[in-house]
Amino acid sequence: MCGRLSLFAPEADLTERFDAVPTRPIRPRYNVAPGQDHPVVRNDAPDEMHFPTWGFVPHWADEFGGGHINARAETLAEKPTFRDAYRERRCLVLADGFYDWKKTATGKQPYRMTRADGKPFAMAGLWEPWQNGEQKTSFTVVTTEPNDLVGEIHHRMPVILAEDEESRWLHDDEEEFESVLDTFPGNEMRAYPVSKRVNSPKNDSPELVAEVMAEEDAQTGLGDFS
């Protein structure tokens, strides 16, 4: 799964990295939640960053809201909700980290996961236009089986694209996608516990990405031996 995102790299760095210009200013975000806008690069406008709403709302839906935040890579071509977008409306979801929650004896501990080098990356996504008196756009993050690192935290993870896979995801034929929708290597990632303040979408500050002692370790005294 992928339940929250962060993206606070400077706009100039993102423009250079993804060779795309934002359609509006990008502000640092430390806790992007479903239902909020977020920058993506769409296959129909690869030189621009657009800001759809996170939560895929099919174009036939009566209302805009409560969309699918994730879509399983294994069934994209089969699910009526996603199959047209899979063929025609793919995007890069930009991030420098994502959050998920690990079940522990003391509750759910949030973890932030990043590339080991801390650089921004692109996740495979799908986007969808919606019109019912007004025009809106939404997106979802494609997920797959986790690597060993993420698997200790959750049973799914986003499809993180290698740089040479980003253009292929946007522009290749559907038959070529299977090799792109794979699991990113765990030895190229980092995962660490963060404050439970990330649980609330109202909180969005640099402190949320700081590493903390996992509550489970604190209560068992394991921190004394670190």
UniProtKB/TrEMBL annotation:
The keyword Cell inner membrane does not apply. Transmembrane segments: none annotated. Keywords: Covalent protein-DNA linkage, DNA damage, DNA-binding, Hydrolase, Lyase, Protease. It comes from the Archaea. GO terms for molecular function: lyase activity; peptidase activity; single-stranded DNA binding. GO terms for biological process: protein-DNA covalent cross-linking repair; proteolysis. Pfam families: SRAP. Belongs to the SOS response-associated peptidase family. This is Putative SOS response-associated peptidase YedK. It comes from Haladaptatus litoreus.
